[in-house]
Amino acid sequence: MIELVLVLLTGVASGALNAIGGGGTFVALPALVAFGLPPVAANAVSRVALVPGAVASAWVYRRELTPVGGTSTKTLTLISMAGGAVGAGLVMVLPASSFDAAAPWLLLTATLILAFGRRLPQALSALLRRPVSMSSRAVLIGQFILAVYGGYFGGAVGITMLALWSIGLGLDAATSNPMRVVQLAAVFLSAAVLFLFASDIMRSPLILLGMLVGAVVGGWAGAHLAKRLSAALLRGSILTIAVIMTIMYFWQS
Known about the structure:
mainly alpha; 80% helix
């Protein structure tokens, strides 16, 4: 019973983090390993369990979506789902350590971009003497690559999305946070479908159910909390989470 309560609370924390700024996987994955699941199984369980929470957050944000460059929300979401499925497929054939070494550096880069991203487009434009803006094709290619990473490992993929959109399109993190949540839900959903059919996650049904319920509660509450924050405070919260996640990733590696 105590273990199930801890699993539930872990799910709440993970769902809330994903809704507010990202990093829920970093909480869920080590917790599941601590509860006795093998790393690959823990990766699969966390991805499946966090889907309903991400969908709940996306539903809260459904009327606040802003386009990412010249891409449509539908196209971007389909690309995210395709990349998530490819990433989940890689879990079945590659060791989890494949991305472990790169993850801290990827997150550090994303954090720096988030911190200075609002100034980077102007600085690059001045340096190159022409406006810097990603084309729709470049946005979709970048989104697919990030979605593959999200389906495979998932750690801080939402933060990295915000960083890509910030430097490539000059989008503010607070404004694009609703779209980040929707794309995160798309990545997790497609990966979860594959994990349900191709992994042994149902061997731990109580752990899966406990984290799933907690993630829904956390995702719903976290999204409502984020909506009440001012743009500056939300931006600061996202950056704070990114900094903490970066430090923890390097500490763990």
